[in-house]
Each structure stands twice: as structure tokens, then as C-alpha cells.
Amino acid sequence: MNPILRFENITRRFGTFTAVDDVTIDIAKGETFSLLGPSGCGKTTLLRIAAGFDRPDAGRVLLDGNDITDLPPDRRPVNTVFQNYALFPHLNVRDNIAFGPKIAGQDAATVRREVDRMLELVDLTAHAEKRPAMLSGGQKQRVAIARALVNKPQVLLLDEPLAALDLKLRQRLLVDLDAIHDEVGITFIYVTHDQSEAMSISDRIAVMNKGVIEQTGTPVQIYETPRTSFVAAFIGDTNFLDGRIIGAVDDRFSRCAVEDFGTIIIDNDKPVRIGDRIDLSLRPEKLMVSRQRPDAGPMDNAVQGIVEDVIYFGSSTRYWVRCGAWKLCAEVQHRTFLLDETPPVWGDSVWLRWHANDGYLLEQYDALDEDLLTLPED
Fold it and tell me: Which of 132, 179, 261, 301 has the highest count of CB atoms within 10 angstroms of its CB?
């Protein structure tokens, strides 16, 4: 890959705190790349370094092969869209968008033509004469995006651009933002702490934690094959099981003993030997719930437990099931009319079933904060 933007061995410290620790990332031309992680993980610091608002203590930033580490922001073909919009309140929509080209000295006809193109792109032609105070939050953000894009940057940096909006509006603007990206074709770098946003819009995601990259990959890779316990817990919800390998089923599958739970079959997606300790990530939607003992195949796992919590979400229901010393979460999608069924309730005895393929062995297991380990129950 010939990257349009490369962070090369970037380190940034603030006193004794290391915000970014020797990070290297290559970002391809035209892709939407998300920096995802909790507050304080270093993602916004990286974005500020790319924009030129901050300078690394070590490493360099390359744009299309050219070192831009020491270039000031106004000399970089990079524009930023901020969470708070940063619009000029005394200017209307048209003049807000036109501000950059005018400052750059473009002639009036060119400015008018480019602004009209941006207004159409973000579907704000009918609002061109309004001032920001007359716009909704979503409309303001689209003005901010248009104002950034009219300068024709090679890379657009988006710093939590939807964080100030309500859920429905965020979901709608994600679709709009994806369509705008497809239309203009430039590289988007999207910073967010919201995993659903990153999963929805990204070609690739870098999951950050404590200043380092825990894993980089496509949304499917990050979700289905998390490398570490942090990634598994931060991207969606998961159950963790740990045990020891006690034998082989065949070349592909092994038996694993989990204390106060039982023996399960796992897929050897990592090299394992008898006696090895393993850590398994098992997503809630992979678990099937039934009152009757299921007809388990040779590579299925089945364990009995007691329902301790039930949360109905409309499209799905989550069950927290106590199985020995372990409490597992299972998510059941409602594909049929639920009133025609009698779903399990609190206190019911149920069986959980999953195929050995549906669990994923972690390369690295670290102690996690309790809010990451515990699946939300309300």
C-alpha cells in the first residue's frame, strides 16, 4: 500500500504522561479510517498532530510521501471538522463555506461555483442565506463539512463530529457522511469513542488504548477476531471464558476445561498445546437460548444455567444466564412475532448452545476496567 498519510513512530508526551507511544499507521488514499478508543487514549492527539495543531516529541508525519511534521496548519492540504462546528455566527451559510476560498484569493466566479457545488453536495441549497443560529445541529455540521471540503484537501480530519447530536440524527448523518465521502473520494480520518459509529462508516479502524494501537483492521476483522481482551470488550459486548487445554478433538479443535463451568470445545485459531491456558471471547449473539436441551452436534457446546436478568430491546432480548461460577450474556434476535412465543423469564432454567467456531481465542488478555468487563444490564 502506498499511503496518502503515514504516522511514523509518533510519540507525544505531556509532562510525565505519554499520550501517544511510538505509533505507526499507514492510511490509504480514499479510505475512511477511524481512530477509535476511550477518552485519553491518544486519538485526538494524533489528529491534532496530523492537522499541525500539535507537534510530536518523536517521529514524523508524511503526506503523500512528503514530510509535513514541521509545516504549520495553513500550509497543509488537510482540513478539520470539529465537534463544535466552529462556524462564524455573523455569516450566512454561503459565506461560511466561501470563507476559505476567499482568503486563498480565488476569483468571485470560482468561489460562487465551488460554494454552489458544496451546497448541493450537503443538501443545503435552500438554506444558503440562513445564519448558523437558524440551523439545526445536523445542518450546522453539514455546513462545517462543506466549508472544509470546499478547500479541496487531500485529507479531511473529523474530530468526533457527531458527538453533540442525538442518536437519530447521528445515525442519519452517518449515512450522509458516507455518501459525501463516496462523492468526493478523498481520505477521511474519523476520530470517535463510539464503536457503532466507527463500525458503520470505516473501511479500517485502529483501536487505541493508553497511547498505543491495540489492533488495526476492517470492522469485520476487529469485531470477529479481536486480538486482545481490550479490543474484544470495547468493540461491542462479549463474554470471556478462560481455561486450560486438556485434549485434542482433531487437528482443528481442542477440548478445554473451564473451572466451575465444564468442558467446552474450541477452534484452534491460535496454536495451542495440552496444558496451555486460553482466553476465549464469545459474543452474545452467538449464543442460542432454549428451555429444552438442544440437539447439539459434535462441535457444539451446550451448558445449562438459570436466567438472572432479562432486558427486552424491541428487536432483540438479552438474557444473563448463571452457569456455575460464570454469568453469560446471550442476545436473541426477534425474527418472528414475539407474542406468538413464550420466551424465557427470570428464574427459568435454560440451555445455552454455541458452535466451537463461534468463540475466538485472544492473543493477549489483560485485566480490564470493570465497566468494560461487565455487560450493561439496563
Answer: 301
